[in-house]
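Exam revision sheet. Question 4 asks you to relate a sequence to its structure. Input first:
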Amino acid sequence: MRALRDMNLPKFVYEDVPLFLGLIADLFPGLTCQRVCYPTFNDMVEQVITDGGYLVLPNQVDKVIQLYETMMTRHTTMIVGPTSGGKSVILSTLCQAQSRLGLITKLLTLNPKAISVVELYGVLDPNTRDWTDGVLSNIFREANKPTDKKEFRYILFDGDVDALWVENMNSVMDDNKLLTLANGERIRLQSYCSLLFEVGDLQYASPATVSRCGMVFVDPKNLRYAPFWKRWLNRRSKFEQDELQTLYKKYIPPCIELIAEGLLDGRPRKKLKTVVAQTDLNMVLSA
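Answer key, structure tokens:
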């Protein structure tokens, strides 16, 4: 029961979680299963979040733990979700928490869509047969060099996942753990290295790619705009906080409800149309 719940919950969107928990309750009536706890790691995660000036939210802390657990069983993990969900904070918190506990964690970030496939993987000159490393092949080679230190190295792909470039990574994501370059060279992914993908959605990813990865879905509905507002408000003086909080309660929640949910004073109205799709947080930042 515990494995069924803990391995599937990270993948679900906001609306699917209560449905899944209801099914679990029907399958195992009368049984309760406590969440697996890592006391030392949990405390360090909360400490890192506090030191960063963020609010300690149970959902956010649990997402860090879910990512930690998923990476225990998979060497390739995708953290998926729309903007404003807190993906970057979750990744940064995981790395800092592990580093503070003595397991130095290095995060090597690149945007695979910012360059061409040739620039990403490297190119073999057809005339001279000289090989020139690409950005990824160079990072991959450096990250997988032998080390005597106790550390983790994560290669983070921060950008859209599509078949144009990611299909060449399938042999790394599966059990072979081999990156095969155009010059015939093969580089093995070491046990202290992992691949991470930070992506908004997987609409252009093939089933072959998705099936090879662990999944953690981060839904902005768990976070919304209130934590950002509170963090910003805490930096103001006491006098400003009182005045701004009054204005916030008067204007922000009613306006967001009207625009995003079509509610006015708790009554349903026609949902407003926006020229450019925006999240709650985007609208609060613009206010």
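Marking note for examiners. Residues 226-286 form one domain.
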